[in-house]
Fold this sequence. Notes:
The chain is an alpha/beta fold. It has two domains: 2-32, no CATH class; 48-178, von Willebrand factor, type A domain (Rossmann fold). It has four helices and six strands; from the N terminus they run αβββαββααβ. The protein has helices spanning 2-12, 67-81, 122-131, 142-150, and strands at 20-23, 29-32, 54-60, 100-106, 110-114, 173-178. It has a four-stranded mixed beta sheet with strand order 5-4-3-6. α2 (67-81) packs antiparallel against α3 (122-131). The longest helix has 15 residues, at 67-81. It is globular. 24% of the residues are buried. InterPro entries: VWF_A, vWFA_dom_sf.
Amino acid sequence: MKLLLSRFFIFTLFFLPCTTYVINEKNAVKEIPQILATADAKACAMNANKAWVDVALLIDNSANMGASNLRKISTIASLIFSKFTIGNSPKISHDHRNTRVAVLSYNLQATVEANFSSITSLQDLANVLNGIQVSTNKEANIYSVWLQSRTLDPFCGSNIQDVTNCIQAFRPRVMIYFAAANK
């Protein structure tokens, strides 16, 4: 049980703006104070259209994925993100919240198809996803796309050496992998 609780705590550290609760062995619920308290840190939304989160879609476009699976990803993403307010504002103003979406594709190398400031609507997202082509390359370098996704953070430089010194503050980050291979 202690191992499970410690893993839960570590997982929740990635979502600092949200209030975190831990249930101990006696089923007592305790609130964990936020480690990073700022004026920009807002409570988590309870519905999708008020979500204030960064979502990075990491899509395998190697030959293993195939064109039909890429189209399925586009359809699924359009259905899911129709529930969210998609925007590119990095801050909350007048309680206007939005979900920022970035899209990266990868095979042997990763490519940023759209960063967090590029996609401002569901149609923009659909256009980006429908523009991804299947590569002839069979390799799918997941590490490459993860590393490339870290450069999207506002506190990171585009230099890969800066990635180890990044801080991802204020806005929770979700990475969704769509993979057909891992080599």
